[in-house]
Design a protein that fits this description.
The chain has two domains: 2-162, no CATH class; 183-302, no CATH class. The strands form three sheets. Strands 1-2-7-4 form a four-stranded antiparallel sheet, with helices on both faces. It has a two-stranded parallel ribbon with strand order 3-8. A hairpin with a 5-residue loop joins β5 and β6 (146-147). It has helices spanning 2-15, 29-41, 46-50, 90-93, 104-116, 128-134, 183-187, 205-208, 217-220, 233-236, 254-258, 271-278, 290-302; strands spanning 19-24, 67-74, 78-79, 121-123, 139-140, 146-147, 155-162, 249-250. It starts with a helix and ends in a 7-residue tail after the last helix. With 309 residues, the protein is an alpha+beta fold. It is built from 13 helices and eight strands. The relative contact order is 0.15. 32% of the residues lie in helices and 11% in strands. It binds iron/sulfur cluster (SF4) (2 copies). One iron/sulfur cluster (SF4) binds at residues 141-143, 177-178, 181-184, 237-240.
Length: 309
């Protein structure tokens, strides 16, 4: 299994992943505990958390799974049109699930490679960030994002369950955070970061501006600040990201849509343009829900505040 493990890691590097690690397909009891604690703590949003519960056991939906392969895709080499990073989370601007993204084929090619080795393979379906920690290729910070030395938190973990007992790596459960740092919490506009290593999804702008149930009135009262799709405040404030050099490579198509996505221009977006150029990249907001973009833009422009609770 050592040779197979090395072969997989070698191919991951060849495809452009920053790192590749292996962990077993054993359960993640800490994930289950966290999800249940959050469900108990916020009864109104219980199901939001309990829907994630099954991920804790990688064998629940793949009883044949023996190992988890985790790869880190960094998007630090990319630069973004001015202004766009203030309104859309970088993770979504550089989303490799969008076919126009230069990294789109990395993930598909890795899946194909694993299948070409004769392995049974299932992508995702496990706690991705904890898998990266347990395979030792990234560390979990207090804002619940995972970090690498090279790319900070500007990374995506990608996971595959396979039916081979690969050689597992050592976990890295150390924190990258200075003990007395709480800049992420201080810069979170909605109080979504609770005690360290805890995020309340129902308060996080990334959930509020894309996924929270409508009608809009429910979330327009929250402080959207400038973010219309996703949110990066807790990552841009983080000192661990300050040493990451800015990228230089453009992602095709972003320059062309940047001006249309300025909050003051969004009310004028028409359905055809939205369906052709915006929705295919940013599909967390439904194809028939351009109105949500307009509501979000209005919320950022009026700057309504989150009520105290
Ligand atoms: S993504 Fe935004 S809203 Fe969510 S925890 Fe970070 S700063 Fe807070
Ligand atoms: S802002 Fe500070 S506490 Fe928060 S994740 Fe970054 S280093 Fe850790």
């Amino acid at each position: 299994m050592k040779i197979l493990t090395e072969k997989i890691k070698y191919r991951a590097r060849e495809l452009g992943f920053e790192a590749c690690g292996i962990t077993s397909a054993d359960p993640f009891p800490e994930y289950l505990t966290a999800v249940r604690r959050l469900a108990d703590f916020t009864p109104a949003y219980k199901n939001l958390y309990l829907n994630l519960e099954n991920k804790y056991d990688p064998k629940k939906s793949a009883p044949w799974a023996r190992s988890i392969i985790v790869c880190i895709r960094s998007f630090t080499r990319y630069c973004f049109p001015p202004g766009l990073t203030n309104i859309i989370g970088r993770n979504y601007l550089a989303d490799a699930r969008f076919p126009g993204n230069p990294d789109y084929l990395m993930i598909k090619n890795m899946t194909d490679f694993l299948r070409s080795l004769g392995l049974q393979v299932k992508k995702g379906g496990v706690p991705d960030r904890l898998s990266a920690v347990r395979s030792g290729i990234a560390r979990m910070a207090k804002n619940t994002f995972i970090y690498t030395e090279k790319s900070g938190s500007w990374i995506n973990p990608v996971t595959w369950r396979v039916n081979a007992e690969l050689v597992p790596d050592q976990p890295d459960n150390t924190s990258p955070c200075p003990e007395n740092c709480s800049l992420c919490r201080k810069n979170c506009p909605t109080g979504a970061l609770g005690c360290d290593y805890t995020v309340y999804m129902e308060k996080c702008l990334s959930w509020i501006n894309c996924h929270a149930p409508e009608p809009a009135a429910d979330y327009l009262t929250m402080s959207m600040k400038n973010f219309i799709y996703g949110c990066d405040f807790c990552q841009t404030a983080c000192p661990l990201n300050q040493a990451v050099p800015p990228g230089t490579e453009k992602i095709p198509g972003l320059d062309e849509i940047a001006d249309h996505l300025r909050p003051e221009k969004i009310p004028a977006l028409n359905e055809d343009f939205y369906k052709k150029h915006i929705y295919p990249r940013f599909w967390y907001i439904a194809e028939n829900n351009l109105q949500r973009w307009k509501n979000n833009a209005a919320a950022t422009l009026t700057g309504r505040k989150i009520p105290d609770n």
